[in-house]
Write a structure and sequence with these properties.
alpha/beta, Lyase, Ornithine Decarboxylase, Chain A, domain 1, elongated, 20 strands, single chain, 25% strand, TIM Barrel, eight-stranded parallel β-sheet, binds pyridoxal-5'-phosphate
Length: 351
């Protein structure tokens, strides 16, 4: 097969990933795991798992059995859980793969009892989000008797805000913990870790903050950017004063200048809402995004970037907290939207 380099690359800083995990682990009173669903929030779950396992992380979480299967074979000492539990169609995978289902309903519990052969499972209890999980009354009312529960989980709905819902969910989780025996208890995601050690219990499950997202102000200045999208310049053109650029002619050159057209667009997850605010850098020069975002192309005002030429790489502005504010996308969407055309290149910025 011919090895064809993509004109898009996602530089991924393994040192930043590991430092972020270490920061979260230092704030977790018990163990600190990692949510690597959605292909490691778009970065590549297998590589994320390998880097974090080498740093000491032992507990990983995916959403589906297809995601679990893609991570096989597992290193011997890591544990993998599947958030969506077991539907009828999942039972073969759930009995075959070395991963635990997170059972989310009385129906899933029944299914696991009938066909799980007594193997350990995790349990999700809904403490007020009304998404997935058994109700508190069900969990403490005997629905879980006799199961081999490894980890009993709940999930916080508003941990990224100073909401009273956090304390209510914490109290409900403590009630369940008193009543239902399990090897471990786990409540906090990235934002939940920032709420303090009361929320940490035996195991935390950060996702976003591992990958450079800042879930709450407590993490600002501590979490480092991990994902750096870069696009290659396909063409540099001269534009005259008054000439429009791109679909709909939404940007008009204010003076004679130069425009760089780069290989990236909304099909790569660089959505149209970046228009008017996005930018890139090349050799410490800022290049503002101009005009609309096309499917596979974007344009930058390169008038100040002397010497920029076809084939050069532009580093997109992609600091997650500030990019989320200006684009209106969430930090999660900014990561998970990055498409399959990027070459994902792991680097270590400071070994
Ligand atoms: C995605 C997810 C996490 C991780 O959440 P972040 O906000 O990304 O830290 C933890 N627990 C559950 C149940 C999840 O679905």
């Amino acid at each position: 097969m011919i090895d064809i380099a993509s004109p898009l690359r996602l530089r991924l800083d393994s040192t930043a990933l590991v430092r972020n995990w270490q920061w979260l682990a230092a704030r977790s009173p018990g163990a600190c795991g990692a949510a690597i669903k959605a292909d490691g929030y778009g970065l590549g779950a297998a590589k994320v798992m390998r880097h974090l396992a080498a740093a000491g992380c032992r507990d990983f979480f995916v959403a589906t059995w297809a995601e679990a299967a893609a991570l096989m074979p597992l290193a011997g000492d890591v544990s993998l859980s599947v958030f969506h539990g077991v539907g009828d169609a999942d039972m073969v995978a759930a009995r075959t793969l070395p991963a635990r289902p997170v059972l989310n309903s009385v129906e899933q519990v029944r299914r696991w009892r009938a066909a799980g052969e007594g193997r350990p499972c995790d349990i999700m209890v809904d403490t007020g989000m009304n998404r997935l999980g058994l109700r508190v009354e069900e969990a403490i009312g005997g629905a879980l008797g006799g199961l081999a529960i490894d980890t009993l989980l709940s999930h916080l709905a508003s941990a990224d805000e100073d909401s009273e819902q956090n304390a209510r969910q914490l109290a409900a989780f403590r009630t369940v913990r008193q009543a239902v025996p399990a090897r471990r208890y786990s409540l906090a995601n990235s934002a939940g870790i920032c709420l303090g050690p009361d929320y940490g219990f035996d195991l935390t499950r950060p996702g976003l903050a591992l990958y450079g997202g800042v879930p709450r102000r407590e993490a600002a200045g501590h979490i480092r950017q991990v994902a750096f999208p870069e696009a290659r310049v396909l063409q540099v053109r001269e534009v005259r004063k008054g000439e429009p650029v791109g679909y709909g002619a939404t940007w008009v050159a204010p003076a004679e200048g130069r425009v760089a057209i780069a290989n990236m667009g909304y099909a790569d997850g660089y959505l149209r809402c970046h228009a008017g605010q996005g930018g890139a850098a090349w050799r410490a020069r800022d290049l503002p995004l101009v005009g609309r975002v096309s499917m596979d192309l974007i344009a930058f005002d390169a008038s100040a970037a002397d010497g920029l030429a076809e084939g050069d790489w532009l580093a997109l502005d992609y600091d997650l907290p500030s990019t989320a504010v200006r684009s209106g996308l969430s930090q999660y969407e900014l990561l998970t939207g990055l498409g399959t055309r990027f070459d994902r290149c792991w680097i270590s910025k400071e070994p």
